[in-house]
Amino acid sequence: PLPCPLPLFSPCVFIFSSVAIIYFVLAFANAIAPAAVGFLGARRGMFFGAIPYCLFIACILYPYLFTLYTCSVLLGIGAAVLWTAQGEYLTNNSTDQTMS
After folding, report:
1. Which of 32, 78, 85, 100 could be stapled to 52 by a disulfide with Cβ–Cβ 3.0 to 4.6 Å?
2. Distances from the Cα of 43 to the Cαs of 19, 59, 67, in angstroms?
3. Do 47 and 99 form a contact (C-beta atoms < 8 A)?
4. Tens of pLDDT along 3-29?
5. 22: exposed, middle or buried (C-beta count within 10 Å: 0-12, 13-18, 19+)?
């Protein structure tokens, strides 16, 4: 059984919905993330991709439904940019000896 009974307006439903929104947006934002990283560069991409993580944590402190879902969408976009920028940064700063 789940840890909460999941009635329609339970906080657990909001959290599950928030995570679903994050990964749904992340799946589609991965299509535009390389263009964003190409425009921003790897270091700036990591910086601007990390900002939505901070916003999401702030939204959890005062979890209103609208702000939670809005921050979830922003986090999905930010995560796509962050992970793509991180991959480019690691690739650019690697040599043949450090890659395996």
Report:
1. 78
2. 26, 25, 28
3. no
4. 555 555 566 678 888 999 999 999 999
5. buried
